[in-house]
What we know:
- With 150 residues, the chain is α/β, with parallel strands linked by helices.
- It has one helix and eight strands, in the order αββββββββ.
- It has two domains: 1-44; 49-149, Cupredoxins -  blue copper proteins (Immunoglobulin-like).
Amino acid sequence: xxxxxILGLVLMLVLIISGLFFFNxxxxxxxxxxxxxxxxxAEDINxxxxxxxxxxxxxxxxxxKVVEIQKGDIVKFTNDSGSGMRVASAIHPIHSxxxxxxxxxxxxxxxxxxxxxxxxxxxxxxxxxxxxxxxxNHVRATKRGTVIVN
Length: 150
């Protein structure tokens, strides 16, 4: 019986050490991946020089309807209407005009809030592609606007 107790304790110790090793190796990979993501973001976007432009959404639509910005600037879409707003790249309903893609895209491009922004809330997007980008409120697709990126 004494040998069984010792063998059981040794097995438990091996399992605990193996579990700790596995847990620590997974955390190291996750930390490294997060560090890589932070580096990519810092290289692609010059946050210090970015300007935040605000476009308000009301029951009449987006205002201003056309905004001209620089590459790397941020547009903040503020919902001042009494209903929901889902900002998305043209072309309705596939949202594929804006060329930047990411793993988190809900449809055709990264320029898509993916969720409805409620009245009083806002959603922001950083424009990293030069061009003229149409957008709309996916909830009320006739409400449209344009962001011109230089």
